[in-house]
Amino acid sequence: MKIENNEKNNKSGFTVLYAVLISSLLLSIGASIYNLSIKDIILTGSVGESQRAIYAADSAVECAFFWDLNITSGEDSSFASSTFLGALPDVIKCSNTTIDLQAVSPAACTYNLLTTLSRCEFSVIFSNTGACINDAAAAKVSVERVVTDPVNFVIGTTITADGFSSCDTTVRRVQRTLRVTY
Q1: Is the residue at 2 inside a domain?
Q2: 30 domain residue, yes or no
Q3: Which is more confidently placed, 13 or 74?
Q4: How far is CA 7 from CA 4, 16, 93, in A?
Q5: What are the TM regions of this chain, as residue ranges (predicted)?
Q6: Does 16 fall in a domain?
Q7: Maximum distance among all alpha carbons in the chain?
Q8: Is the dihedral angle over the CA atoms 178, 94, 101, 156 positive or is it negative?
């Protein structure tokens, strides 16, 4: 005698449902990991650009220090002041960039007799040739000297350097600024 089981197997679709559910869960986890990886790569790239910008600002400050405290020339500074205004050097050199202080803008170094303030501004490009090629880092430097004590002729100096990760004016260029006062 044969006994037949006429009950239908209603569990046949659960295997496919579980497979779709698990594969969609794994796919969403994979997409999340991919999204985090892309953001990490972008962040890592911006850290490199930030490092180039801070290097440019730091190097420009050191160059301005050298020329402000240029003891080898016999003067107290290469930048304008009330006593050495006529004895300024025509050119200074930072990295491989030669800067003509007399030709940069209408007056690269100015002195105001009313405020006893002198200000010199120049730009430096950090490349092998000193020209803006191959996305070289750059900096804009401002050296301000103020007579803080006219009786003893004490001069306070502020050097501000804006370092840029690139010498061209792209939107993605990073800027870092250092300001030193002494």
Answers
A1: no
A2: no
A3: 13
A4: 9, 21, 95
A5: 12-34
A6: no
A7: 127
A8: positive
Structural domain harbouring 149: 41-181
The predicted model gives 36-60 an average pLDDT of 86
- Joined together, the tokens standing for residue 115 give 């405020």
How confident is the model at residue 21, as a pLDDT?
Answer: 92
Query: What distance in Å separates the CA atoms of residue 82 and residue 147, rounded to the nearest whole number?
Result: 9
Beta-carbon-side half-sphere exposure of residue 114 (alpha carbons within 13 Å):
0
Distance CA 126, CA 133 (A): 10
CA torsion sign for 84, 89, 92, 98 is positive
HEC assignment per residue over the chain:
CCCCCCCCCCCCCHHHHHHHHHHHHHHHHHHHHHHHHHHHHHHHHHHHHHHHHHHHHHHHHHHHHHHHCCHHHCCCCCCCCCCCHHHCCCEEEECCEEEECCCCCCCCEEEECCCCEEEEEEEEEECCCCCCCCCCEEEEEEEEEEEEECCCCEEEEEEEEEEECCCCCCCCCCEEEEEEEC
Number of domains making up the chain: 1
Average pLDDT over residues 102-128: 69
Query: Residue 99 CB: number of other CB atoms within 10 A?
Result: 21
User: Does a structural domain hold residue 5?
Assistant: no
